[in-house]
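Q: Convert this sequence to structure tokens.
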Amino acid sequence: MYAIGVDIGGMSIKVGLVSSEGKIVEQNRVKTAKTADECIKNIVNQINDLLLNHKLTIDDLSGIGIGCPGAVTSETGVVDFLPNLGWEKVKLVDELKKDFNTNIKISNDANVATLAEVIYGCAKDYNDCVMFTLGTGVGGGIVIDKKLVEGGYSRGAELGHTTLIFGGEPCSCGRSGCVECYCSATALIRQTKTAMLNDRNSKMWEYAKGDLANVDGKTAFECSKLGDNTANLVVENYVAYLSESIINMLNVFRPQAFIIGGGISAQGEYLLDKIKAYCEKFEYGYKNAPKTDILIASLGNDAGIIGAAALVK
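A:
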């Protein structure tokens, strides 16, 4: 059977028809509307379009899965708080059930990305995995025995909001020193800009065309590959922050595999080799511990749709 996967983002909402093998048969994308009601209407229209295009009915689906950022209670199907879109207490599952009499489930977007990688992606040969998604923030996901672990009230697995440095950089969550403050793409960009201002001769200025506004999550990495000393230092510090955070997770969960996803994971082996080399320094937690494989996510931007569909697999 097929399933529908819905990936709600700040800029767009993607809806895909997904096969039982985890392949996206077709997907639609629409700009994220200003209100929850408009977004729900657009989701309904996209689902109906996909069904019509493939001559399917709702009975041909195993269900509809939804990945959504923010605070989501999966048991009730409610998006409790999605600050970027201004959503509060949106009964998303109940609203969709008015149009579709089928199994509908919802989870946090980082959770479904993790599920996608474990069921269909880079970690499909593992049962127990933990994941960081390194984007604007740092999302976290935990899968044990191929099943999501969301914690009480679906509010666990906020791995990006564990403390890395006590009293460190202020975090949007209201605390300070969170993993997100040092390991997100946002943090890497901040670290890169600071380093550039301290070294006007760095190749990173040329890469950014002389404008800090052009700095992105690739700037330090790409200039590090060119041998720029300041870029090397930025990458070295970033890898240390990320590796320390990963080892913390390994000591808590000891999963079979740890997955790195999000935009920064596009650095692939260049990033992975540095993380493994850093972790190998530690006798306790990595070198002499039961081996956890560290992997780069493989599904890219499709993970949201595929993971959402996997909720109703």
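The chain has a mean pLDDT of 96.
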